[in-house]
Fold this sequence. Notes:
By secondary structure, this protein is of the alpha/beta class.
Amino acid sequence: MPPEDEIVVAYLAPELPALSATFVYEELLALERRGIRVIPVSVRAPAAVASGQEELARRTHVLYGGRPWAALGAGTIEALRSGRRGLRALRWLLHDLRAVGPLRPASWKLVYQWLAGARLGSLLRRSGCTHLHVHFAHVPAQIGMYASAFAEVPFTVTAHANDIFERGILLREKAARARKVLTISRHNVAFLRSRGVPEEHLAVVRCGVSLAARRDLPRFDRRGHYRVGSLGRLVDKKGMDDLVRAAARLGGGAWTLELSIAGDGPERASLERLARDLGVQDRVRFEGALPHGSVARWLRSLDVFVLACKPDARGDMDGIPVVLMEAMSQRVPVISTRLSGIPELVVSGETGLLAPPGDPPALAEEISRMLEEPELRARLTEAALDHVVHEFGLAANVDRLLEQLAPVRATPAPARA
């Protein structure tokens, strides 16, 4: 067992260390640099391990690996071994099956997640964990809360976006069982309150940006050619199609524009086709996925960074994309959309510019305004850098997280007279 004051945290995420979830493993590594012993756990192995994180991948425990029937058997054995500890987990499961509806497919998945929780609970006990922290409030939180009961350790959850907007089941139950539900924005706090989660169970902890802040000043002069960029998974909610349409409306007068799109995903072929259809294929470059170590250099090659987020057909949308914080940390002017928690980071007219989601003409106007006003770019980037460092910096948010992970000590009984 660890010493009484030692914090040993198990860290559970959907895919660790995934290329698409830099903010999760950067937070984990920051905790380790603070002297916290961390046990990394992933629901499943990542499709692509983040560059440079092979050592973290090797020591990460994977719950959904191998044959499902073997996992079911191992989970059943651990549940039976748990004795009285498993009774609380079983009561939670029975309650949750009734709440979700026993005939729904999600209920059968809960049973599988409960058994995965039994296996994780055994790992927590063997590792001497004092706390379980979970990223994402859907499947990982369902496994994590059952594991918490099996192991009799407290847990916290960080809620992001899709996990509560589109896949948020049992939110009140998770909040009641957790020490705290942390979330990345005040927008999410309001959303969770509207779903019945009491405010006292909620706290804001941002996904902190880990890139070192740029110290030198970029050029903010007028030129004949500008380079605008965007980075993200090429899916509908990133609004890359709106950005291509906006770019097609710009340039050709006093200045020309090149658009650099970094990232990959299922929409790439359709975006390339759109660029050809709009006649701008010679001005739009598709860079493919960038390793995290190359992001800062690519950002510094840009005059403006744009992320045209919007809800997709299912209602899924971004929370506060970390790449916006990264651009601001590199003194790159940013433009995004009035969506979810983004205006808490990109304060329109103060730390960046905002357009309505799904409105390419309005987006084009904001890009044109940013490029044609060098004084505006200089003013916004200085305020943006200060805002990112103090509100969205990794160090500041690890401090906030540590407040939730510290062991809760019982208040001593008053001495008797």
